[in-house]
């Protein structure tokens, strides 16, 4: 499903402010699993979502909830 925003106002000030402070790509894996290329042993790592990314997700959700009726779903 693809969403296209068609509202006039654009993003909320909180969303814009949070994005401006976010100075890296918003990429994260909570779990990474692979097989070691030499030994063949399965290896696994876990990492919590960084706090700045948690805040970004919360602001994005709040912005969507505030404006979801202004989104055309294709």
TrEMBL record:
Keyword annotations: Isomerase
GO molecular function, one term: 23S rRNA pseudouridine(1911/1915/1917) synthase activity
Source lineage: Bacteria, Pseudomonadati, Pseudomonadota, Gammaproteobacteria, Enterobacterales
Organism expressing this protein natively: Escherichia coli
EC number in record: 5.4.99.23
UniProt-listed GO biological process terms: pseudouridine synthesis; RNA processing
Protein name in UniProt: 23S rRNA pseudouridine synthase
Gene transcribed to yield this protein: rluD_4
InterPro entries: PsdUridine_synth_cat_dom_sf
